[in-house]
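Forum: Protein Structure Q&A
Topic: Joint prediction for protein chains with partners

I've read a bunch of threads here and the consensus seems to be that you should model interacting components together rather than docking separate models afterwards. I'd like to see that in practice. Below is the full input, 743 residues plus whatever partners are listed. Could one of the regulars post the assembled result?
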Amino acid sequence: MQKRFVSICFRFLETDWFTVRRPNLKNKPLVIAAPEHGRMVITAANSRAQQEGIENGMVLADARALYPLLEVCEQKPGLTSALLKKLAQFCIRFTPSAAIDLPDGLLLDATGCAHLWGGEEKYLEEISKRFSAMGYQSRVAMSDTIGTSWGIARYAQSGFLVAPGKHHEAILSLPPEALRPENETAQRLHKLGLRKISQFIHMPRTALRRRFGQIFLQKIDQCLGFEDEIIIPVDPVADYQERLPCLEPISTHTGIEIAMDTLLSTMCTRLAKEELGIRQLAFICHRVDNKVQEISISTGHPSNNKKHLFRLLETKINEIEPALGIEIFILEASIVEKTQQQQEKIWEQACGLENNQLNELIDRMAIRVGTGHIYRYVPDEHYWPERSLRQTASLQEKSSAEWSIQNPRPIRLLLNPESIEVTAPIPDYPPMLFRYKGRLHKIIRADGPERIEQEWWIEEGRHRDYYQVEDENGDRYWLFRSGHYDLQNTYKWFIHGFFA
Amino acid sequence: MTQQKADIIERLKREILPLQGYRSALKSGLSDMGFGPFNGAFPDGKFPLGSIHEFIACNTENATAASGFIAAIVGSLMNKSGAAIWIGSQLTIFPPALKSFGIEPENIIFIDLQNQKDILWTIEEALKCDGLSAVIGELPELSFTGSRRLQLAVEKSRVTGFILRKTSRSLSTTAAIARWNIKSLPGHVPENLPGVGFARWQVELLKVRNGRPGKWEVEWSDGKFHPVSKIAAILPEQKRKTG
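Posted by a regular:
Agreed with the consensus. Here's the joint model:
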């Protein structure tokens, strides 16, 4: 596909920014000044100020002498790059990859984008219209190479749209600065009387290299498209991204649903072909007023089932505030993974944790109740009851350990062992009576003790002697004594669980 | 002639049963785990799967016995490979113990929620998923409407649902196919040997749709129910109720 690049040049970026914020400055000579060597020096001047003969680099006092009513704003450090970044992000509606071009412009990779606006002319018109609506004066040029677009946007008087393949002719009448040479090179070219590109572009390359260096040749090549140049987008383009620009701003629930559905079906078809599934998905809506609304979902299992993903996203539609309308929808799969191909049986469904429906169910529940509430347990290599298992949120995680079934374990375990009063006969015999929550339990049968030592490398503490006891009703409890019997009575009895 | 009539009535009965919520589960049914005593209580002579069973528990000990009984049935339903979901608030289930009821503890997904509405919604959604072997829900209250929603959900998916209600304050009617109450019984240890013996339960079937409520004493050992007293004590006729 023929590459097309757009270069945008903001000639009065900083002054425009102040004018947007203080409309009373409009149509007045305005300069931005910054202190330098103990005096105020002008760093930017708007078009009215330039008409009065005020230029960048002038001392503020001199400028005031030229035009006493001059409006002055103090320079804000870092404003330009922050502003350009914001503008580049705004350009996401024109192309997926927009880059900052310091000090005063933006670069857009517009390959295959213009037809959505009904042609390149309308595309450029729309871009400059949108910027001027925001209060920024811009010059927008489009051509096959970044270099040509850059030069045209800054130095041409007309013909900002360069047709495919015509960039060679387009740059001929421009001054040498349009090629982005270093300052020194540009000065030398002027000194030699080479004031137009056409005057030296056909010179032998060896001669040009000898006089102006390899870098200058490279710039020429980049401009003419002999050498590739890449742009680094402000927001890296995700590998799996679908965009849907809308002719009219969308603000209804149904409209958003339709957009979601359209984007999902394209993406799912593509992912299914590549045998990939989505783990994390973001649905981004760019509003007319330049605000961005985003909802995102994640799944526990790579999925390219459109219906399922739609149901997950659908639950969050209400979080989107369309305000005056959404003009572009972007669906971005931030994490994709290989799907496990399942051999499907017609007569029987896999019933385990790998079951697709189960995975989809868990995803749906996670959206409603939050992921933290859904978990599974896998065994862990510890004897201490609280540590003998591990909670995990993943349905796939497996443990190398095995469930220990040597000793009986209660089916219900108290979160924290609760202290009980006990009457026990001689050391190391199970208790005869115990009182728990105000009720006295007489122990008829008992089994134990099972001693479980504290793991000293994890936590210091006393061992536990566990007894399984049964009271007169047949209810069974798991009691333990913490520590040894001793005369000082430092040991304590606890209840830890209930047997079925 | 009478034989013919009897046949027709038998056939019609069989046709009516599915309409009342008794359906044969699609998946492999319960393996034989000594369900003999209970089977007689159900109209088609089988433990009903693909429907809602309700368990009443008035205290923690009661609830524990009921969860043991549920675990025993779920263990057989899961058949080593299936998955089940256990939903409730402040769950205290200790998974390693489930292993002794034939459940692979890793295959149980726990969902711990605070809000009753969320719990009910989650149970309902889980019951609609036919990739599950069983769904166990712990709820303090279950309204008739709520239970009917659950019953309708399982009628489509044929998942078996177990609802453990931890209160007995008001036993309202529900659309569950059966209502159980499980109590622990003292274990039996021969000849003064030490230990506590196998778990024993008094299983009471308080209500069952079109069946005969009853009361049994069973022992759980070797992955099977063993009747303690061989003959089921069927409740007297006047106490019989239909759901």
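The longest helix of chain B spans residues 60-78.
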